[in-house]
Amino acid sequence: MGIAMVFCGNRDMGEFSPAPQTVAQFGRTEIRSLFRQHTAETGQVFEDGVHELVWSLTRGQPWLVNALAAEACFRNPEGRDRSRPITTGSIQRAKEQLILRRDTHIDQLGDKLGEERVRRVIQPILTSTDFDWSRHLDDIEYAIDLGLLRREKGQARNRQRHL
User: Fold this and answer.
1) pTM of the full predicted structure?
2) Alpha-carbon torsion, ordered 142, 143, 145, 150, to 10 deg
3) Where are the alpha helices (DSSP H) in 19-151?
4) Is residue 2 part of a domain?
């Protein structure tokens, strides 16, 4: 029997594990698999385009994927009706609700921007200043894990410029 555990809003597992671990970004296949599990357990289907929309909004950031799905499938009254499919409109409404509510993870991102290791990476991007990326690989990975940067064809990119 397999057991799965999700720590929504917490990417650093150090306080729950003797060896610090970070939850990896979900790929498109993993997002599709998570939604298939929901369908298998509840019978509720996801319309075409939902998986790709969730991917484009989150780039697989685990907290955001889970938060959008929870909002669309469990908090939204229409989503709680398992005879109704989850649509791209459901996901768009879930996105808006997360933003308006300023859920913990989104609110914490503002706090993270004040951290030196985040500022060290984000500031040169915002000011178009030259930056030696090779000297700050751990900081870059941290910013990617937070969802502030994304990897594109092997390179980190500022997510905000592509939303």
Assistant:
1) 0.61
2) -140
3) 28-42, 50-58, 62-70, 77-80, 88-101, 104-112, 116-127, 137-146
4) no
Q: What is the pLDDT of residues 12-58, one digit of tens each?
A: 444 444 444 556 788 999 999 999 999 999 999 999 999 999 999 98
Q: Which amino acid is at 53?
A: L
Q: Decide the pairing of beta strands 155-158 and 149-152.
A: antiparallel
Number of domains in the chain: 2
User: How many CB atoms lie under 10 A from the CB of residue 86?
Assistant: 24
Q: Which of 101, 132, 148 is the last residue in one of the domains?
A: 101
Domain final residue, candidates 65, 81, 101: 101
Please name which of 114, 102, 103, 109 lies closest in space to residue 145, comparing C-alpha atoms: 109
127/150 same-domain check: yes
Q: What is the CATH number of the domain that holds 96?
A: 1.10.8
Whether residue 156 is contained in a domain is answered as yes
pLDDT tens digits for range 65-82: 999 999 999 999 999 999
